[in-house]
Amino acid sequence: MKNHIVVEKPEKCCGCGACANACVLGAIEMKEDEAGFIYPSVNEEKCVLCGKCVDVCVFTDKNKGANAEPEVYAAASKNREILEQSSSGGIFSEIANAVLERGGAVFGAAWTDDLTLAHFCVEDKSELYKLRGSKYVQSNTGDAFRRAKKILDDGRQVCYCATPCQISGLKSYLGRDYDGLLCVDLVCHGVPSMKMLRDDLEYVCSDKYSEIRDVRFRDKRYGWGVKGSVSIGDSKIKYNAGNSPYYFYFLKGELYRESCYNCRFPSEGRQGDITLGDYWGVRGELVAGMGGADPDLGISCVLVNTEKGKRMLSLIEKNVAIAVSDRKSAEKRNHQLTSPSVPLPEHKTLLNGYINNGYSAFRQGYKMHLKDHVVRTVKNMIPSGIKRKINDFLN
């Protein structure tokens, strides 16, 4: 029976945008709900009930992912400039450079002029900086799936980097495998909404909000970790769990959309040809195998899931310091490789408070965690190198 997409339960939609991209009549728009999470909205006057949007939905039994045992590595770019501009080991940039050098295109999340996160296409190395760095908020894919398909149909290579659900949505939209498509999925904890982030930045930056030029959730000036910055004019202010309720609750896993807590992808095989994440707590012996790479500058956890992924790794291998690891070690340091985030009891209260009372609900809850803030602030004062030595000693 022909119909159109209907989201009956929020946990059954990840907001990937595959349905909107599949609608050639433009009858589907991704709209924010009360909490700012995006869901498909169907214009029934335009809709002809073709059912394409239903066919591509990733919450049907689609795209189980790679089932073969992945090759697992700890890796970091040998290029110090790339390392300093990246959140962890700079492997995404090395992959992107390889694709661009061969006339391909790279898709990833970047900030728009109005501080919205959206997926962009980069075809020149000079613009690659826009896609670097972790962004702890959901991106809007817009028409990126359509653009990727056109480039692939023209016979060019595409590297598409995104969360597992977005990669699944892309594959479902394309409907077939392309030899020229390389998918890179991320070790994803979950995503809050863009509305929440905008409210938080207005709180943190106050009357300087309109002057924000860039947001970095992970700024290597403070070492490899979860400390960021906001660029305002020619200056930067720190942005982390010590001054941002949003950042604090993100790290606690409290602000994600409902589908993130019910994510099917950790248990169904990786969606990407390559999976990238942080190799937190990387040990001395493994680092030694990387030729003495500096762990304070960031180490990536790399899972190579397919033959395409293996071919790409061989292309960039000369540009990276790399050591063989194993799946058990990777999963120990990245629990989202095996299971989705689990909401704490206060998640519903926090979310309902935000819907009913706005951002003040985050501020109120944030004040109740004063002890957590003090502990985190003290930890942030310890240089990352010393932290690593302490962890090595304890482990």
Q: Can you walk me through this structure?
A:
By secondary structure, the chain is α+β, with helices and mostly antiparallel strands. The protein has a domain at 10-55: Alpha-Beta Plaits (2-Layer Sandwich), CATH 3.30.70.20. The chain is 34% helix and 18% strand. It contains 16 helices and 13 strands. It has helices at residues 18-22, 52-55, 80-85, 91-101, 144-153, 164-174, 194-205, 245-252, 258-261, 284-288, 307-316, 327-333, 346-357, 360-367, 370-380, 384-394, and strands at residues 28-32, 38-42, 71-77, 105-111, 117-122, 158-162, 181-186, 212-216, 228-232, 235-239, 274-278, 300-304, 320-324. An eight-stranded mixed beta sheet has the order 5-4-6-7-11-12-3-13, sandwiched between helices. Helix 8 (245-252) crosses helix 14 (360-367) and helix 13 (346-357) packs across helix 14. The mean pLDDT is 91.
List keywords for this structure.
alpha+beta, Alpha-Beta Plaits, globular, 3-stranded antiparallel β-sheet, 8-stranded mixed β-sheet, 395 residues
Low-confidence stretches at least 5 residues in length (pLDDT < 50)? none
State mean pLDDT (0 to 100 scale).
91
Anisotropy-based shape: globular
Helix content: 25-40%
Largest sheet: 8 strands, mixed
Strand order of the largest sheet: 5-4-6-7-11-12-3-13
User: Could you spell the SSE succession in H and E letters?
Assistant: HEEHEHHEEHEHEHEEEHHEHEHEHHHHH
